[in-house]
């Protein structure tokens, strides 16, 4: 038992610093299918469906991740827009510095 304890204390802690969005690091590109996107980066945390003026339905998949940039951590939201199961656009949503207090009025936007 003594050997295991000393072995564990001698291993330095590993901290992974995420400097790049998983959208970029997993090479997410327009014309990919929903299945291809989900197999690379997993499912979204939120999904929205929108109907355009010309009667077409668009799926909006939302991904949120904590990324280290410069000397601070930021919550970054990416929105992937699909039409007929095909990715047609990637937008950046809100970007919030970690630890920032968000007021109720800002959250409702």
Structure commentary:
This protein has 109 residues and is α+β, with helices and mostly antiparallel strands. The protein has a single domain, classed as 2-Layer Sandwich (Beta-lactamase Inhibitory Protein, Chain:B, domain 1). It has four helices and four strands. Strands 1-2-3-4 form a four-stranded antiparallel beta sheet, with no helix packed on it. The longest helix is centred in the N-terminal third of the chain and has 9 residues, at 2-10. The radius of gyration is 19 Å and the shape is globular. The model is unreliable at 1-11 (pLDDT under 50).
DSSP summary: helix tally: 4
Write the CATH architecture name. 2-Layer Sandwich
Proportion in β-strands: 35-45%
Radius of gyration, taken over Cα atoms and rounded to an integer in Å: 19 Å
> Total domains, how many?
1
DSSP helix fraction = 10-25%
Structural class: alpha+beta
Average of per-residue pLDDT values: 81
Oligomeric composition of the shown chains: single chain
CATH class: Alpha Beta
Find the CATH topology: Beta-lactamase Inhibitory Protein, Chain:B, domain 1
Low-confidence stretches: 1-11
Number of strands: 4
- Measured between the Cα atoms of the first and last residue, the distance is 56 Å
Largest beta-sheet characterization: 4 strands, antiparallel
Shape field: globular
What is the chain-wise order of helices and strands?
Answer: HHHEEEEH
Strand neighbour order, sheet with most strands: 1-2-3-4
């Amino acid at each position: 038992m003594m050997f295991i304890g000393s072995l564990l204390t001698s291993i330095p802690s590993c901290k992974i610093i995420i400097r790049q969005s998983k959208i970029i690091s997993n090479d997410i590109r327009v014309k990919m299918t929903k299945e291809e996107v989900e197999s690379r980066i997993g499912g979204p945390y939120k999904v929205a469906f929108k109907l355009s003026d010309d009667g077409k339905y668009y799926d909006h998949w939302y991904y949120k991740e904590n990324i280290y940039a410069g000397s601070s951590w930021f919550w970054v939201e990416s929105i992937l827009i699909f039409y007929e199961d095909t990715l047609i656009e990637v937008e950046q949503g809100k970007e919030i510095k970690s630890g920032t207090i968000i007021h109720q009025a800002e959250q409702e936007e």
